[in-house]
Design brief:
By secondary structure, the protein is an alpha/beta fold. 28% of the residues lie in helices and 22% in strands. The protein has three domains: 57 residues, no CATH class; 227 residues, Isochorismatase-like (Rossmann fold, 3-Layer(aba) Sandwich), CATH 3.40.50; 247 residues, Class I glutamine amidotransferase (GATase) domain (Rossmann fold, 3-Layer(aba) Sandwich). The relative contact order is 0.11.
């Protein structure tokens, strides 16, 4: 069983989640799973929807492969992360084993250490089949269809993210232990139990393929390290398993990358991992999370302190599916976890991936006059009512309103969204040919836009100036827009909502605004301020970051 549930209502998805995530299954011989893939929002589109699929895997036809969960590594931070994740990997192995699944330990280069272990001897006794693929013993750098998706990180430096001084200490420590600092692993980390009666130990693609076939395995879950290297490329890795017919998934919370944030795309280490996982979901195989076997929540590294921004885009006028997505990828990804929720192409009043709100910390809205199915709008209402931050740009002042018209059957509107969430009062806009000068409100000392850093006169916006005066009580104006012979209109402000939550709104967001470092710095400062992050950016910082991104276009696998 494997059916698409990407268009299920949020409530239906949650109901399925309760069944799959930690509840006692109706049939203990079946693993009920929710798999995630990514599909283009339209043919040849650059953006992707996250699609959920339900699946039922027979336990006895399921295997878990543990890739290279070594006891040591040349990268000290990699060692620290493995030490954190190993107990969760051990719990997953026990859970799958207890229901009749097969567990294969694959610590590459360490097989001689286990020459007398029953799990190693069991693997050696497996008879090689005549139909064993000839290329199954080879490293695999790419499979069919993968070239269409640009590789997401530059790992050409090996991916070490250690502090240089501390790394030098680590090298000396490894030498003192008699280990090769370049490849110090000897065995699998001993936090993970190897069952001598049932498990297998092998790092040979040929052996593992034959183990899987001999046990009647059809479904394989793979966890371990490192996602962008061994997990993908080993002879028993995702690429080889996929192209040789196994239904394969990556357990995405129990993995890590070798990625150095000083390399392109210059994002947080864990955002780099997310990008590799995105690539896997798009062109290689689905992913799952360990809580689907273990209950509770997915594993998270202790240093992954990123707040989670959900970026909601459903508008056609200003192409924020291009400009805002690019900005979020270049700027938000540096410090935050980012999920995109986009409208369905054929049913533009329905959103795909709104379940991302379940663990989100903040919401960024770029929507224009889109009433939604009641369950989806209610999910957004509930998120906001919980007091979490909201950032809105441009048409989000009239996100769910139809100018007083009633929505179509099955859809719900929210005409008061502007007033209730942003303290706004959008009524119309000036002509497109009336160019507005953007100015910091005189003597502003707000940390987002202190005039001593931004100056007073900012830039000329090419987008029409919105008519929003007067704003509601509880707002604080940061920037104004001024056209000749007209009163100034607020174009950026903060608001304290009735639920006590913070909001920030700007009526800017025209395509040309995203080309301006001042506007980009404003948005990024707002994103940090809304979630109580102390970081603050000036326009020069944005210009420097953009230069780094442009320099990274020659990324390597």
């Amino acid at each position: 069983m494997n059916r698409l549930i990407g268009s299920l209502s949020l409530l239906a998805w949650l109901a399925l989640g309760l069944y799959c995530l930690g509840q006692t299954p109706a049939n203990p011989d079946i693993f009920p799973l929710v798999l995630q893939i990514q599909q283009p929002v339209a043919k040849d589109a650059r953006n992707h929807h996250r699609i959920l699929q339900s699946a039922e895997w027979p336990a006895k036809k399921t295997a878990l492969i543990l890739c290279d969960v070594w006891d040591s590594h040349h990268c000290l931070n990699a060692v620290r992360r493995v030490q954190q994740v190993a107990p969760a990997i051990d719990r997953l192995a026990k859970a799958i084993r207890s229901q009749g699944g097969t567990v294969i330990h694959a610590p590459s280069d360490c097989i001689p250490y286990y020459k007398d272990h029953p799990a190693r001897q069991r693997a050696e006794k497996i008879t090689l089949r005549d139909d064993t693929p000839t290329d199954i013993s080879k490293w695999c750098d790419q499979i069919d269809g993968e070239a269409q998706d640009p590789y997401p990180v530059d790992q050409s430096d090996g991916g070490e993210d250690d502090d240089p001084a501390e790394h030098a200490q680590w090298v000396e420590r490894l030498k003192s232990l008699g280990r090769n600092p370049k490849s110090p692993w000897i065995q699998q980390i001993d936090t993970i139990e190897i069952d001598p009666q049932r498990d297998y130990i092998s790092a040979s693609g040929q052996e593992i393929w034959n183990i899987l076939k001999s046990q009647g395995i059809e479904h394989v879950a793979l966890c371990g390290v490192h996602t962008n290297m061994c997990v993908l490329g080993r002879p028993f890795g995702l690429r080889q398993l996929k192209q040789h017919g196994f239904q394969t998934v990556l357990v995405k919370d129990l993995t890590d990358t070798m990625y150095n944030p000083n390399r392109w795309p210059h994002v947080n280490h864990f955002s780099g991992t997310d990008r590799v996982i995105d690539h896997i979901e798009r062109v290689i195989c689905p992913t799952v999370t360990s809580d689907q076997w273990l209950g509770g929540k997915p594993f998270r590294f202790k240093n992954d302190t990123r707040k989670h921004w959900v970026v909601l885009i459903a508008e056609d006028e200003y192409k924020t599916d291009e400009t805002l997505v690019r900005w979020a990828r270049e700027q938000l990804d540096r410090d935050f976890k980012v999920s995109f929720v986009l409208a369905e192409t054929e049913q533009p009043n329905r959103l795909i991936g709104l379940d991302a709100l379940a663990d989100a910390d903040a919401l960024l809205v770029s929507v224009r006059r889109r009433p939604l199915p009641a369950d989806q709008l209610n999910a957004i209402r509930a998120f906001i009512a919980s007091g979490k931050p909201v950032l809105g740009i441009r048409t989000s002042s009239h996100a769910f309103s139809l100018r007083g018209k009633a929505p179509s059957a099955g859809l719900s509107d929210w005409p008061e969204f502007d007033a209730e969430v942003f303290g706004g009062n959008y009524t119309n806009h000036y002509g497109n040919d009336e160019i507005a000068s953007i100015q910091v409100v005189s003597h502003s000392d707000h940390p987002l836009v202190a005039s001593k850093d931004f100056g007073i006169e900012l830039y000329q916006s090419q987008g029409s100036l919105y008519k929003v005066s007067p704003l509601r009580p509880g707002t604080r104006i940061l920037w104004n827009g001024k056209i000749p012979n007209k009163d100034a209109e607020p174009v950026a402000w903060t608001f304290v909502r009735a639920d006590s939550g913070r909001s920030f709104y700007t009526s800017l967001g025209h395509q040309s605004d995203f080309e301006n470092d001042l506007f980009s710095a404003l948005l990024l400062n707002a994103a940090h301020w809304l979630v109580d992050s102390p970081r603050r950016f000036l326009p020069a910082d944005i210009e420097h970051q953009q230069h780094m991104v442009e320099r990274g276009e020659g990324k390597q696998r």
